[in-house]
Amino acid sequence: MKKLIVGAMLLGASTLTFAQPGCGVGAMIWKGQSGAAPHILAATTNGTFGNQTFGMTTGTLGCNTNESVQSMAMYMNSNADKIARDMSRGSGENLETLAVLLGVEQADRDAFRSLLKDNFAAIFPTSDTTSGEAVDAIVALLEQHETLSKYVAA
User: Could you give the C-alpha distances from 97 to 18, 29, 51, 57, 154, in angstroms and in order?
Assistant: First the structure.
């Protein structure tokens, strides 16, 4: 019985780990708040109502349907610390992986690395910045960039 309970707890924890409340009703309710509690509450709200999947499919509820952005978000979720380190330096394997996931062409990679390095403080303003918040900041920066905006267009 103890093994069953521990297994259920681990399954629940792993599910929350991959929950990215960057969009959906949960993200809208808890928008602007940082830290673990609002992140978990947003993910729980989205999971309870099943609206994040709907939003990602339809491009509503603040969700981006761009598959490369979704791939970047999944990668960021598992590697945020490594990506932050590479981003602060403007180079590294994890930063290159982000570029590849977004489909950034080789000719645009220097601009991509420079943009993220120069805006590191805006992408990771605190040590409590979630991967979802960092992805949102990256997408916003790319959308405003004349050359790089094409990589985040839905």
Answer: 19, 32, 29, 25, 20
For position 50, what pLDDT does the model report?
60
Given a contact cutoff of 8 angstroms between Cβ atoms, the answer to whether 56 and 65 are in contact is yes
61 φ/ψ sector (left φ>0, alpha ψ -120 to 50, else beta): left
Name the amino acid, one letter, at 127.
Answer: S
Domains in the chain: boundaries: 1-63, 65-154
pLDDT computed for residue 140 by the predictor = 87
Q: How many CB atoms lie within 10 A of CB 131?
A: 23
Q: 0.85 cut: is pTM over it? A: no
Q: Which H, E and C letters describe 80-141, residue by residue?
A: HHHHHHHHHHCCCHHHHHHHHHHCCCHHHHHHHHHHHHHCHHHHCCCCCCCHHHHHHHHHHH
Q: Which residues of the chain have pLDDT under 50?
A: 4-20, 57
Of 53, 34, 1, 6, the residue nearest 136 (C-alpha): 34
